[in-house]
Amino acid sequence: xxxxxxxxxxxxxxxxxxxxxxxxxxxxxxxxxxxxxxxxxxxxxxxxxxxxxxxxxxxxxxxxxxxxxxxxxxxxxxxxxxxxxxxxxxxxxxxxxxxxxxxxxxxxxxxxxxxxxxxxxxxxxxxxxxxxxxxxxxxxxxxxxxxxxxxxxxxxxxxxxxxxxxxxxxxxxxxxxxxxxxxxxxxxxxxxxxxxxxxxxxxxxxxxxxxxxxxxxxxxxxxxxxxxxxxxxxxxxxxxxxxxxxxxxxxxxxxxxxxxxxxxxxxxxxxxxxxxxxxxxxxxxxxxxxxxxxxxxxxxxxxxxxxxxxxxxxxxxxxxxxxxxxxxxxxxxxxxxxxxxxxxxxxxxxxxxxxxxxxxxxxxxxxxxxxxxxxxxxxxxxxxxxxxxxxxxxxxxxxxxxxxxxxxxxxxxxxxxxxxxxxxxxxxxxxxxxxxxxxxxxxxxxxxxxxxxxxxxxxxxxxxxxxxxxxxxxxxxxxxxxxxxxxxxxxxxxxxxxxxxxxxxxxxxxxxxxxxxxxxxxxxxxxxxxxxxxxxxxxxxxxxxxxxxxxxxxxxxxxxxxxxxxxxxxxxxxxxxxxxxxxxxxxxxxxxxxxxxxxxxxxxxxxxxxxxxxxxxxxxxxxxxxxxxxxxxxxxxxxxxxxxxxxxxxxx
Length: 652
What we know:
single chain, alpha/beta, Rossmann fold, 6-stranded mixed beta sheet, 5-stranded antiparallel beta sheet, 16 helices, 62% helix
C-alpha cells in the first residue's frame, strides 16, 4: 500500500515557529529519522510540518511577532503564516488540507495524539474512530432520502390511478380511427359513383352554359375546400408535434431543482462563516500554543526556568523536571502538582476540540453553501434558457392554433358555399340530375362527418399525449425509487460498516504487531463491537461501543483476561499506536495527506521501535519518526536521517 512512488521530495522551510528560529529540511519518500536528545526541537519540526498540512498544532515562537512554514511538494507550495497583533495570534495561508480532523487523529502520532491517549485513558474508542464522521449529517441524509422516496412512491401511485383513464382514451381513439377509415372508404365510393353518374347525364343537360358556370364554381369551391382541409390537417400535425416538444420542455423544466435560494442571504452567510472560521483559527491556535507549551514543559522538552536549564548537566535537569511530582506554575508562580496541571490542560484540550468541531462544521456548511450557490446559478441559467425556448414554442403554438381556428372557419364557409352551388346545379339540371345531386349531398355530409371525426381524434390525441408525458416519467421514477432505496440502505449501514471495518483493521494489525514485537506474556489484544443501552436525557438508547480485551498467559500456561492498567507503558503505547493505525486505514488517511509522523516512543525499547517503523512504513508516502540517538541506532541504516542538536540540523 506504500504510496512513496507517487511523490517527489518534500522541502519544509520553517521560520520562528515553536523553538525553531530558521530551518530547512528536505524529506525523501519513505522513512526519515529525526535523531537528537530531548529539547532539541524535533517535536517543533513535526508540529511545523503538521501546521503546513493545516493542523493547529503549530505555534509562534515566544519572542517573535511573525512566523511561517512552507511545504514544497510535487511542484506545489503550501504555506502557513502566524502573526502576533495586539496580543492575539492570527493564522493565514494555504495549507495542504482544509480540514485535518482525520490527519490529527490518525496520521500525526505525537505523544499528545488523541487516538493514542484514548487507549491509555480508557476512553470510548468508538467515539474516537467516529470523530471524523458527521453522524448528524448522516441522520439528516436518511430523513431526506426517506422524504424523497415517499414523494416518488406517491407519484407512482398517482400514475396507477390514471391507468383506467388511459385505457378509456385508447378505446375511444381506436373507435375514432375505425370510424375515420370507414368514412374515407364511403367518401371514395361516393366520388366514384358521382363520376359515373356525371358521365351518364352529361348529354341530357339543358341550360348548359349556366349549368357549366355553376358546376365550374362548384368545382372551384370543392377544390378550395379540399385545399383548406389539407392545410387544416397539416396545421394539426404541426400543433401535435409542437405540443410534444412543449411536453418535453415542461418535463425538462420540472426536472430542475425547484429549491431556489436567496443569493443575498447565502452570500451574507458565506461571508459570516468565513469571519467565524478566521476567528476560530485564532482561538484554536492560541489554545494549541498554551497546550503545546504545557505538554513540552511536563515532558521536559521546553525551557521552564532559564537558569535551571542552563546548568552543566542538562540531562540531569530534565530528569529532575520529569521525576518531580510538584512543579512551579509559570502563570501564577506557585507550586502545584503535575496532575493538576494535566487536568487543566485536558480541560483546555476539550475546549480546543469543541472549537475545532465547530470550525469543521462551519467549513462543511461553507462548502455546502458555495456548492449550492454554484448549482443554483447554473440551474437558474438553464431554467431561464428553457423558459425562453418554451416561450417561443408557446408563441408558435398560439399562432398555429389561431391558424387552425381561421382555417376551420374557412372550411365551414366553403361547406355552405358548396351546398348552395349544389342546390343551384340541382335546379338547373332538373329531375334527371336528381340522383347526381343527391350523391353530391351525401359526399358533402360524409366529408363533414370526416372532419368532425378528425377533430375528435385530435382532441383524444392531445389527452393521450398529456397522459403519456406523465407515464413517460414512470421508468425514471422507478429508477429513482430504486436509487433512493439503495442510497437509504447505504446511509443506514455506513456507520455500522465503518465501525466493523475499524474493529477488523485493529484486530488484524494488532495480531501482526504482537507477532513482530514478541510480547511473550500477551496472548492476544482485540476489540469487540458491542451494543449497550445507555441513558440519554430521560430515555435509554442503544449505543455502539468498542470493548478492548487483553488476554494474557500465565507462567503455568493458563489464559486469562486482564486490564490495560496492568500493562507496561511500552505495551500501552504500542496498543495506542496500532489503534491509531486502524483509524488511519479505515478512514484512508493516506489518500488525504502523504505524511505520517511518530514521536514520543521512548517508552518502547529500540528493537521494537525498529520493528514498528518497518511495519508502519508500508502505508504512508512519508514516515517521519523522531527518536533518541540510542533508539535510532537500531533502525535500518538505509533510512534517511536528520540529526538535531545544539541548534543545528544535519542530514545523514
